[in-house]
Each structure stands twice: as C-alpha cells, then as structure tokens.
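Minutes, project check-in
Item: structure for the 337-residue chain
Input as provided by the requester:
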Amino acid sequence: ALALYTKRKPNNHGKNEIMMPKLYEAIEMAVASGVPNSMLADVLTNLGWPRALVNQAVDTWLENSGRKTIKTDFKTWLKKYQKRARPAIAIVVVISLVQAGVMLLKPWPTKIMADSAFNTIPAPGPLEPYTGKPELIALTAIMSIVLFIIGAAIKCFSDFLLLRIGFWLNRSIKAESFRHILHLPLYHQQRLAKGDYVYRQNVVTNSLSDLVLGTTASIISSIVMIIGVVLIMLSFNKMLTLVSVVLMPLLYLTMRLIGPHMGVYAKQLTEINSNTASAINEAVDNAETVQAFTLESKQLLKVDTLWMAGYKATTVSYTHLRAHETDSYLVCRLLLE
C-alpha cells in the first residue's frame, strides 16, 4: 500500500509546502506498517522521495509525535540529576544541623553541674534557685539522659531517612544505566568484558548518593556549623575567636594539598576494582578454556597482582584521609574551652 501510494506522488515536486502533507501521510503509513523509526528515512528515500526533504519531514514528525530520541551531552545529563539531588541535599543538611545542635547541647549539663553544683556560679535560667544544692546534680543528670535519648532517636531516624534517600537517588541512575547497557549494539558490548559492565552497574552507579550524602551535604553542613560556632564563640571571647579563625586558612591549605592526591588514588582504586571484576568474570565464564590450556596459575597470578595493587592504593588513600580527619566532638571541646 505504501509503494502504491508513493507512485501516485506528482512527478513535478513543486514547492515543499505542497509535498510536506503527502510526505507526512507516507510517514504515518510507514509507521503503521511496522517500519522502525530509525529506518523511516531510508525506506522513504528508496521509494523515490528526496532525501533532504525526507530527513526534515521525519525529524519534524518524530519531534511532534514525541518519538524523537534526544541525545544529550554529559553536562546536560548531569544537570538533570543535580536538580533531582537538590531536595535530598537540603534534607541531609537539615538533619546534620539538628544532630549538630544536639551534639552541642550534650556537654552543657556537665558544665552546669561543675560550675553551679560543685561551685558557686549561679545556674542559668530556672535552675538558678538550685545553685549549690544536691537537687541540681539530679536535674543535670536527668538532662544528660534526656539528651542522650533524643540524640539516639534522631540518629536512628536520620539513618533510616538517609537510607531511603540514597536508594531513591541510586534507583533512577541505576535504571537508566542498565537500560543503556541493554540497548548497546552487539559490537560495542564485545569491546568490554562482562565483569566491567557488572562492576559499573553495581558499584559506579552508587556514586550519586555518595556524592550527595558524603560530600556535598557534608561540606554545606560543615560550613554552616563553622559559622554558628564562630558566632557563639564571639559572644564568649572575641580574642579566642580570632585565634581560632586564623587556623581556618591552614585547614583549607591542607585540603588543597591532600585532596588532589586522594583523587588520584581514588581513580586508581576504581580502575583496579573494575579490572579485578573483569578478570574474575572472564576466568569463570571461560573456565573450560582456562583448564584446557592450563592457565589456572596465570589467571590467579593476574588477579592476585590486581588484589595487591588495590590493597596498596587503599592503604595510601586511607592514610591520607586519616591525616586530615578530625573528631566531631572537637568542636564541642573548643566551644567549652
């Protein structure tokens, strides 16, 4: 039917405005007959339609019908997930600030007990009448227990919520990655080992939640925390605050010096893990060939070499990480001092 229809098209093409409606009808007939979208232009060209006009009409028809596959670059693809991650970042920052507030309150009952129960400094607020009395010890102990329970409850709730946020962030990118792998041409699938695809799908796709929960939100929470601590310290002692602020550029300088080295080792570790998974998967899938040519020792040596390289990269990265890592309770101790 499509061939008979195209034979009735005028020999003199005339203007594009006259041919376009007929060409759109031919496209719809071709789609109805089962021609794939990727082959529409070739089929219509073989039937005698001008290629330039066919390409323009097919693109317009696919776009208007919502069937056009839009290929985006990496930046555009990344912005899509960046927009999805913004609410998660806001939630993680709020949770971190609440946990930081509870953490800053935990030392205060002990401070009130030391200053007002065992000393003569008046207790703050409604506790002032109990200054120097045994009742203040009981009240501060109850306050410590209440803060401990509140902190544990918030920690449990935040862990559950962060688990859901991480799964939500990873699910979409895992589905898109898996769909992309399944639609790859056969010649492309043979370029990489199966283990590499499995590693990318199971491990690398977790990077979005790691970036949101472990890096971006942590940096924002730390900045807000530092600003809050500096404001509180200004109300206590301005000179001590100035001394503490002078040390902050040194922390930034340390991060600038150590951060690039950690990035290099992290990249090496990712590549090593990918190669290890690929080598093991290939050896297992081709076990008959390995046994036939007695390559067991060679394959084991290859994987063992990758294991040792991964161990060395992990130890170096771990050492650099712990070199500039600080305890979270250090802020509380500095605040009390």
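Outcome recorded: Residues 1-14, 323-337 have pLDDT under 50 and may be disordered.
No further action items on this chain.
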